[in-house]
Amino acid sequence: MTTYSLFISCPRGLENLLADEITALGGSEVQPGDGGVAAKGTMEAVYRINLHSRVASRVLLQLTKGSYRSEQDIYKLAHNIRWPQWFSPADTFKVKVEGKRAQVKSLDFVGLKIKDALCDAFREESGERPSVDKQRPDVRVHAFLNDKTVQIFIDTSGEALFKRGYRQDAGEAPLRENLAAGLLLLAGYDGSQPFQDPFCGSGTLAIEAALIALKRAPGLMRRFGFERLKNFDKPLWMKIKQAAREAALAQTAAPIAGSDNDRQMIRVARQNAEAAEVAEWLTLESAEAQDVRPNGEGGIMLSNPPYGVRLADIQMLHALYPQLGSWLKQHYAGWQIGMFTGDREMPKLMRLQPKRKIPLFNGKLDCRLFVLDMVKGSNR
After folding, report:
1. Residue 158, exposed/middle/buried by CB under 10 A (0-12, 13-18, 19+)?
2. Is the pTM of this model over 0.90?
3. Torsions phi, psi of 130, nearest 5?
């Protein structure tokens, strides 16, 4: 089997977790970078990573890499790729270009050059060219430029991998599924401990906890970009999927619960849990955070509590934090608590001392995961 150069992207801050996943799923020469991991892998590894990775965003397969001085150099590099090996003129495509310190007038213009090169290569080979579809393309092409080099990739994922296929309605500012899974893994959740989220919103953390606890591959309910490519090995893919189904457990080892004081959000969370086929292992109910009690010993609580953008909200939250701190000390001794927030003041106002502060990004929002060990009768 041919080995390809891959770049697997993820939310910033989860690169080391992703590197461990890629190694376990058959990638080699794994190197974490900024916003993802470079690795080598066969198509079999590509299928496995897309299906099983909990924290990846996209699995990109490198078609070419070279230096450039002008847009014309980029055109030549793109024109030399054997595009008809990968897909047919009947497939639609889309080109996306990103750059860091790129020495070009405009990234959009580079995108047009790559599109022209791809269409010209097809026309020369078959007299036909594929069409562009910006909304739902069959094939996605990504290019990354720095000040000297350009890399061109074909996207083997299709839709971003955080789209597991279960989210019905996300509410206001949803936590992406792959970030939620990454937070759970960073907080030490492995499915063996009781789990609670007292600010569960649309239920993403609780649902991802259930998928981890059931050892269920997060990509089992969706389609992937590689299924549209010419070298797609359907028998191999069916075999990998079947093995993933057989590896899933029939029962969670410990209870998983989510609650929220917004009844409408709990309705949405239940719909999402049904769609994810994990509803029977989750307890989801409407409750104020401080009315919630532990659902077992030595569990993990992980939450993305609301953090205000408007001043009035911030003042209200800052009045709530000391009460939350007291509630945790009183009821959650022996638990590990993770709070994911954009509010740096949170632990101080809760009068708790985090044992770890992990910098992460929620989209463009600079956040922290504060991990706290609750010890009985102390303010640690």
Report:
1. buried
2. yes
3. -75, 160
How many degrees, rounded to 5, is the angle at CA 195 between CA 191 and CA 197? 135
Listed in sequence order, the DSSP H helices in the chain are 15-24, 43-52, 71-79, 83-86, 107-126, 177-186, 204-213, 234-247, 263-275, 311-331, 346-350
CB distance 192 to 297 below 8 Å: no
Strand order in the sheet with 336-341: 282-286, 256-260, 195-197, 300-303, 336-341, 365-373, 356-362
Q: Which residues contact 326 (CB under 8 A, 6 or more apart)?
A: none
> Which of 255, 269, 161, 271 lies closest to 217, judged by CA?
161
Taking only the tens place, the pLDDT of each residue in 159-175 is 999 999 998 765 566 79
Q: Which residue has the tokens 């990109």?
A: 60
Interior/surface letters 193-205, b for 16+ CB within 10 angstroms, e for the rest: bbbbbbbbbbbbb
